[in-house]
Amino acid sequence: MTLYARLRPYAFRLPAEMAHEASKGLLRVAGATRPSRAALERVYRYDHPALEIDLFDTTFPNPVGVAAGFDKDAEVMGGLAALGFGFVEVGTVTPGPQSGNRKPRLFRLAEDRALVNRMGFNGAGADAVAERLAAGRPEIPVGANVGRMNAAGEEEAIEDYRRVFARLSPYPDYFVVNVSCPNTPETFDESSPEHLERVFGTLQAENDADEPILVKIGPDATAEGIGELVEIAESHGIDGIVATNTASDREGFDLESTNRKEWGGLSGAPLEERSTRVVRTVASHTDLPVIGVGGVDSAESAYRKIRAGASLVELYTAFVYEGPTVAREINRGLVSLLHRDGFSSVEEAVGADL
Ligand SMILES: Cc1cc2nc3c(=O)[nH]c(=O)nc-3n(C[C@H](O)[C@H](O)[C@H](O)COP(=O)(O)O)c2cc1C
C-alpha cells in the first residue's frame, strides 16, 4: 500500500475543495526550490526515450499531463513537473478575476472513483497568470486553457477569449479554447457552428506568432457534431482537439455514491469509456493531434486513449484517488505495454486501434 493510500482516508475527511487547496499548498512548497524539486524528481519522475513526443514545436518528455482545472492560476507548475508529469494545462483562465459558484462546489464520489464539480471558472484572471508564466516556466511544456467570464453573452465571450489569448501570448506552448464547460451559465450555445467559426476566426486574426490553438470538447458530442466541429477547426487552422471535458448528462452512468445527485460535471473512472469513444471519433475524422482526457487513471486506460488516437493524455480525478505516484506509475506501465505490443515509442502506438 502506498503512503498516499494510507493517508487518503484522513485527506478525505476534509471537504474536497479544502483537500485540493491543501495538496496545492504542499506542491507549492515542494516545488519552490531546486533542491526540493530534485528530491521529488528522484522519487516520482520516470524517464524513458519511448515516452518522448514532439508536438506543437516542442518536446513532451512523456504523454501524461495535468488536465485543466487543477492548476487554474499557474501556481504549482514546478511541483507538478517534479512529480513526473509530462506537461501541465493551466486554467481555465478568464480575462479578469472571478470567484466562481457558491461552495460547496466539488464533491467526491469515492465508490465510483469520480468527482462532480461545479466550480464555475473561479480564478485569479489573465494578468495574474501571465505574470506567473513570465516569472518562470517549469521544465515541461505548459498549455493555457482560455475561457470567458460567467456573465458574458456571445459577443462578450468572443472578446473574452481574444483578451485572454492576447494577454497570455507568448508564454504557453499551446492554447486551448474551452467551449465545453458544463457548469458556467448557459447564456448561448457555445458549441454552435456559427459561434465556433467566430471564435476561431477572431483568435487566428490575433495569432501573428502562429501559436498552437486547440479546442476542448465535451463527452456528449454526437458523431455528426464532432464531424462538423473538426471541419470548422481545420478550415481555421486549429491545431488540435482536447477530448473531453466533464459530463453534465448522467444518462447511462451507473453511479453508486450519494453525491451522484449533485449538479455539475462528472469526471473520473465512469467517464473513461465515453471520452475514449469521443477520442476515437475525432481521430477517425482528422489527422489533427488529439489530447485524450477523461478517466485516465492507469497505464491501461492511458494506453486505450493513445491507441484510440490520442497523442497525449491528461488527468485530474486520478490525481485525487491515486496520489502523487500517478504519473510515474502510468508512464512505467506504458513502457511495458508498448514493449509487449512491439511498439518502439508512444508515437508509434497513436491510433493503433483506428
Ligand atoms: C474540480 C475540477 C475543475 C475543473 N476545471 C476545469 C477548467 O477550469 N477548465 C477545463 O477545461 N476543464 C476543467 N475540468 C475538467 C478536466 O480538465 C477534465 O477534462 C475532466 O475532469 C476529465 O478528466 P478526469 O476524469 O481525469 O478528471 C475540471 C475538472 C475538475 C474535476
Automatic annotation (TrEMBL):
Its EC number is 1.3.5.2. Its main location: membrane. GO terms for molecular function: dihydroorotate dehydrogenase (quinone) activity. It catalyses: (S)-dihydroorotate + a quinone = orotate + a quinol. It is found in: Cell membrane; Membrane. It is a peripheral membrane protein. Gene3D superfamilies: Aldolase class I. FMN binds at A68, G69, F70, D71, K72, T92, N145, N178, K216, T244, G268, G295, Y316, T317. The active site is at C181. Binds 1 FMN per subunit. Pfam families: DHO_dh (PF01180). Its cofactor is FMN. GO terms for cellular component: plasma membrane. Pathway: Pyrimidine metabolism; UMP biosynthesis via de novo pathway; orotate from (S)-dihydroorotate (quinone route): step 1/1. Residues 51-338 form the Dihydroorotate dehydrogenase catalytic domain. GO terms for biological process: 'de novo' pyrimidine nucleobase biosynthetic process; 'de novo' UMP biosynthetic process. InterPro entries: Aldolase_TIM, DHO_dehydrogenase, Dihydroorotate_DH_1_2, Dihydroorotate_DH_2, Dihydroorotate_DH_cat, Dihydroorotate_DH_CS. Substrate binds at K72, N117, R118, M119, G120, F121, N178, N183, N245, T246. NCBIfam families: PRK05286.1-2, PRK05286.2-5, pyrD_sub2. Monomer. Belongs to the dihydroorotate dehydrogenase family. Type 2 subfamily. This is Dihydroorotate dehydrogenase (quinone). It comes from Saliphagus infecundisoli. The gene is pyrD.
